[in-house]
Amino acid sequence: MLFVILLAFVFSGANSSYIEYNTTQRIVPGKINVHLVPHSHDDVGWLKTVDQYYFGGNNSIRGACVQNVLDSVISSLLEDKNRRFIYVEMAFFQRWWRQQSNAKKIKVKELVDSGQLEFINGAMSMHDEATPHYIDLIDQTTLGHKFIKDEFGQIPRVGWQIDPFGHSAVQAYLLGAELGFDSLFFARIDYQDRAKRLKEKTLEVVWQGSKSLGSSSQIFTGIFPRHYDPPDGFTFEINDVSPPIQDDVLLFDYNVQERVNDFVAAALAQANVTRTNHIMWCMGTDFRYQYANSWFRQMDKFIHYVNQDGRINALYSSPSIYTDAKYAANEQWPLKTDDFFPYADKVNTYWTGYFTSRPAFKGYVRLLSAYYVAARQLEFFKGKSSSGPNTDALADALAIAQHHDAVSGTQRQHVAADYALRLSIGYLEAEKLVASSLAFLAESKSATGKGNGVTSFQQCPLLNISFCPPSEASLSNGKSLVVVMYNSLGWKREETVRIPVSTASIIVKDSEGREIESQLLPLSNSTSKIRSLYVKAYLGKTPRETVKYWLAFSVSVPPLGFSTYTVETAKQTGPSSAISTVHTYEGTKNDAIEVGQGSLKLLYSADEGKLTRYVNSRNMVTAFPEQSYGYYSGSDGSDKDPQASGAYIFRPNRTITVKSESQTKLTVVRGPLLDEVHQQLNSWISQVTRVYKEKEHAEVEFTIGPIPVDDGIGKEIFTQITTTMKTNKTFYTDSNGRDFIKRIRDFRTDWDLEVSQPIAGNYYPVNLGIYLQDNTTELSVLVDRSVGGSSLVDGQIELMLHRRCLHDDLKGVGEVLNETVCVPGGCEGLTIQGKFYLRIDHIGEGAKWRRTLGQEIYSPLLLAFSEQDGDDWMSSHVPTFSGIDPSYSLPNNIAIITVQELENGKVLLRLAHLYETGEDKDYSVMSSVELKKLFPNKKIKKVTEMSLSANQERAEMEKRRLAWKVEGSAAEEPKVVRGGPVDPDKLVVELAPMEIRTFLIDLDYLQMFSA
Ligand SMILES: [Zn+2]
């Protein structure tokens, strides 16, 4: 009986048969339009390596296979031409593309041409925004955009940084507007900021990231109301629990109207917090669409039934279509300036730990970033070879390393090892290229007029821990060491370099064969210690115990060029390198100890063993800074809020000052070129402070680790530099190494901050430096890699230098950040050696040092070693070289950030102004570069100005740019200045403050020395 009733019920409806869903819907004016944007967020490494994610390996960690995503999405798109999909991460798409048949490629190209498949963002990875350097961001975006242009002829229009943990000003103006993007979308902003924006309908803004470039570099920016996934109840991966639409009348659980109602309700809720009639739903999330039809089938039905219902309009869309709809609405948008750091998603959950997480990896990325800049220059000077070693593998590895779970330090340990391995493989190939280019350039004096590249050059990537076999080799039998120093900066530099040597009786000669002053310094205890352990860990062998000294000498190197120095055995009766005096102060005397041979003197108190005074006798700056170390014990999440400190999150629960375990000994090393102060703060923190005769800053090399955790407490180590400056809660930190942004403690510009984490909530990313100002003075600290920093007390700068955490912070990585180094016989906590640089200036005079030394820190001299028999090197080789006109140097406010030969023989050139408007009285001005002098001996046939990623002509990009309207008066803005067009005869490039200009240059006689 029951059976009969049921049957009757089922058959009482319409006939069940094939339903053709109408998915053709476009935008309908006057209705709420729900833009469904199908997407998959595919991390280029995180819990698994990039390759494991691609092919579906290691699925016990997570069932994720990007190959499945792309295969199934393409089939689904081919089934219905109204369906759309966006793809973002070119590192994955390239892997897939090269495996496809030509027939498949043709079909995919049609999907791209029709807009069904659209590349969004289009960089190799969705880069982190806190910890990368802007040059890396540009390079990895250029690489992805080039692939898209070469294969598909397409130019991405939209920035899609949906997952990074906070958003930088440089992302908005440089990696947004200057790429020609019309809009930028993301999910993660501070929870308090989001609450206010939801209330005020200000989630969509026009963002001006640069003070200097203002409205000329602004971008429409959309922040998602919640996250980058669909509203609850609309996720359709195979195992998802959202109810699918069941519209077959022959089956039970028919639910069309119910689901349509759900859809309309969710759309209206979002429309309530959004301006205009257009809302976007991100239909997807991490590694979704592994079976794409399970999503598309549901979206087909929703579009069909919701539009039949008619209350709102649903359509397949993309961020570009959405952007155009927003633009067409002709609305005025709120203005956003500065950035979106720091990011907190809950009251105790500040994502400020990752600014420092994995400091060794961050240092390695930075080191290779600059190496890549130098290697491309040398590759250009020699002529790019498609067969020989090149920089492509390094470019790829660096691009992947910028991912928001890579350089950020938030990946699993095995994935961190994979990124490092890729970098080292890329480095080894680039190292060969550098060696052969230097050989080619150094030999070009030979009879044939060009080098054969037979000279063998060695480089020393472990020089920082005093390991350098060629310089350690004993100089005997008339052999001497040849050191070629390459300078990738556009101006001449003079500095003191150091190499490890195994004998004291040596002299150093310059390119002209003149003996120059040099100084021998003892290795610090900590350097000797990490040298033996880390060489064994990295190379699997024990280094020879012959290194006795650092040999320091001052060098002068021309712009984009090299100088050659030789180290020889001293004659028995002749002069020899000066051995430093070493004096250890045990804290018994009451004297002040003075160090410094030049203008800058640092004074230490002998009984306390610490810095007490800073005196620059040239500019008459005197200050009384103190420096200390301490650590935060990380929250273990055992209180009522389970939030622990971890890879992402910084949540301190106690601050502990490191007090010396005994009276601190000071060891002072003195010599003609520099003085050093060695301090051992405790058994696992030490530092060497260096004052160079010719420089007016202090260089501090710290060695931290292994951080002890036997007490079961994770520790996050900081240093503080404390002065009496009255800084009124204000300090400045850079954005990706470029613009400086004003920070005010316990304050946000965009909302009234409720302070819950007074330490973690005041941390900001530092890539270049951090500084303080008061009425008379400025205190600047520059860094050698990205770290977290703050000013928690007026007059004080704090940097977090190392972290070792014992708890997972519940943000998905599922592993504790507890880095170790292992050799046969055991593992210990990772030790970090790094540097920061400190200087105090009169107010208004600090910028010159920050910008100039900042470039030198980013691009250290590249050292290559060879040896000579007798002393015929200088006569048989070119001892000095400059790739630009020898009479020329770039202005002090301009940097060459890219010189790269492309496969088509064209040269990619990028020039960057280093100063912001108003930053320096002399250098914040329009400046110019003479291209003819940059490319001597060549004829410049044509110069084309391009967008930042070089995928379109700048003029075309400007023509296409959408002119967004900003709320309030636009007339208040001072006129934005930019360099003018390049006259094809004069070939002079003007750059206004903070401008970066990108050119494609056609040259004749590209091979400099070809016959
Ligand atoms: Zn992600």
From TrEMBL:
Q: What is its EC number?
A: 3.2.1.-
Pfam families noted in UniProt: Alpha-mann_mid, Glyco_hydro38C2, Glyco_hydro_38C, Glyco_hydro_38N, Laman-like_dom
- UniProt keyword terms in alphabetical order: Disulfide bond, Glycoprotein, Glycosidase, Hydrolase, Metal-binding, Signal, Zinc
Xref: InterPro entries: Gal_mutarotase_sf_dom (IPR011013), GH38_C (IPR041147), Glyco_hydro/deAcase_b/a-brl (IPR011330), Glyco_hydro_38_C (IPR011682), Glyco_hydro_38_cen (IPR015341), Glyco_hydro_38_cen_sf (IPR037094), Glyco_hydro_38_N (IPR000602), Glyco_hydro_38_N_sf (IPR027291)
Cofactor stoichiometry and binding remark = Binds 1 zinc ion per subunit.
Identify the cofactor(s): Zn(2+)
Q: Which residues form the Glycoside hydrolase family 38 central domain?
A: 349-423
Task: State the signal peptide span.
Answer: 1-16
SUPFAM superfamilies reported for this sequence: Families 57/38 glycoside transferase middle domain (SSF88688), Galactose mutarotase-like (SSF74650), Glycoside hydrolase/deacetylase (SSF88713)
Family to which this protein belongs: Belongs to the glycosyl hydrolase 38 family.
**PANTHER family listed in its UniProt record:** ALPHA-MANNOSIDASE
What's the protein here called? Answer: Alpha-mannosidase
